[in-house]
Amino acid sequence: MLACTLLALPSTLSAQTETPKTNATPAQMAEYLVKLAEYDAARAAYQVRANPYWAEVKAKRAARFAKRRVHHEITLDDYVLTQPPEYTGPKKPINPSSSKPEIPVVADFLQAAAQQFDFAPEQPAREIDFKRAYARVASAAGLTRDQAVRVYAFEATGNGNYDLEAGQEFDRNALAITTALGYNQLLSTNSVELLAEQGKQFIETLKSRAADAPSSKKAALEKKITALQKMVTFARSVRDDWNVHERLGRTPKGLGIHALNLDIDVGPLLQTQKLMNSVNFAKERGYGEPLTAAELEMMNLTGDGNGFDIVTLPQAMRAKVPTSNFFTQSGYEHNPVARKNNTVAALLAATDAVMDRESQLPGAKDLAASF
């Protein structure tokens, strides 16, 4: 853990830009306030039923984690076996006078990298070049072809490019919905966290490549290493905490770090390490079986702790345990896939079905052939 703490970030560091506020009429505001009151009343009534359920989910999760630490057996009694109450009231209305933050896109990442770190990622001349670079790194790290290809198929539609951003899967001009980027859809928070925790490892990898590189490539690698060192120093300037890294990832420097995913040398390292951290998390806790791609995706989807909880659930229990056990209330309500496939068995089956389908697309086949 890093010792430094994060000071309050000034608002001028926010990387999200706001669209101009609309001029809502008095009638529009009056209608909004009526609808908001209706929503608040319905939501309050719902929370009377929901709060005890989600409190029990949280308590049982904490108890499971405690039992697992001392190697006690986990049974069905350690899970909430009923489905959560369903909210059926009105949707939360949109404030007609509010502004909506725009999610940064690839052009913003590139601009931030240039301005903050004097860095321009070395982007591939062809998509297949990035796939081959990723396959080399993933294979050397210990990911299997099946894991890498099927997670790529699930996360990047089976046809996504190295610079794919969430929300733009089928229309590059569409608005991004998050900063999730690349084959494994890393958020800017992930990029900052990976540099904070494994950045020195990435630097050593590039130094090793530079030592063996021809003179035409060596100078470019050395410049890249200098920029990477500055980025690592910045990422490690705060304590090692997801919430703190999330704040850092929204700053111009954080977005500049995220541009590393577009670099043919560093991008594959980041995309691979995100998955390997989950693989290693399971191994360190004594899970000896190779993770299936769907199990690896569960750790990617719900976080390593909850994902490990899912992975270690015996087959006989998977059809009986609701997926709500592995989410917070907010996370569950914002995850339509987990709500629709509301048991562990159903969620894993749905994930495998998507992977089966998307891995037949050209991008996934190209990646498979690169191993």
Instruction: State the total count of DSSP E strands.
Output: 2
Bin the helical content.
55-70%
Largest sheet: 2 strands, antiparallel
Low-confidence stretches: 1-20
Describe this structure in words.
By secondary structure, the protein is mainly α. Among the domains are: 26-78, no CATH class; 103-126 and 168-268, no CATH class. Helices cover 58% and strands 1% of the residues. The chain has 16 helices and two strands. A two-stranded antiparallel sheet has the order 1-2. 37% of the residues are buried.
Compact description:
This protein is 58% helix and 1% strand.
Main traits of this protein?
single chain; 371 residues; mainly alpha; two-stranded antiparallel ribbon; 16 helices; globular
Summarize the SSE layout with pairings:
Layout: E1 17-18, H1 26-69, E2 101-102, H2 106-117, H3 127-141, H4 145-155, H5 188-212, H6 215-235, H7 242-249, H8 252-258, H9 267-284, H10 293-302, H11 304-311, H12 315-318, H13 329-333, H14 336-340, H15 344-358, H16 362-370
Antiparallel strand pairs: 1-2
